[in-house]
User: Fold this.
Amino acid sequence: MATTHEIKVQRREDEGKGASRRLRLAGNVPAVVYGGDLKPVSIELSHNDVWLASQHEWFYASILDLSLNGDVQKVLLRDMQRHPFKQQIMHLDFQRVNANEAIRTAVPLHFVNEDTSPAGKAVDVVITHELNEVTITCLPGDLPEFIEIDLGAMVVGDIVHLSQIKLPKGVEIPELALGADHDVAVVVAKHGRVEAEPEETEEAAADVPATKAAKDDE
Assistant:
């Protein structure tokens, strides 16, 4: 089951740039809730509450309970606008979800047992995470906060593809339905960069005095 998190909100009556600016000066964040059979609603949230929530991974990949005086609507965060250089959230977009309708969203990938794998223990092997999140479809009640990938058996040369990810019940990766070309690599274990051979280094060094001597003869 998906974990939900409650965030208290208030109805916002005034709209426009001026009203939003006043909200931010008062320590709140303007936002909008849309989707479903209801009209879009303008709301405001405490910036401190939103800022603390935004430090957690679940804020971006979980069902959120927006509570307006006890009236709870289940939503997903769809967009967040941040100030270009201040630690300030400028605006949020939330989409309502229906328990009986599938949703499409991105969830983070958690990689475990990488350091204890044969590839992770090898000094000359580099493990690269090609993806850090994956787009899935599922019912809201099946939405995972993250998907775990166990790399404990990974050896050099191994490649973990999208189709090899063990998905929770009720969860699908729509990209895989588009064909084999979309079964991209998620994790790759390969040897690190090979240093130049000693012979090549010596030949390069030998070229230096020869070039200098040629210039001295001019």
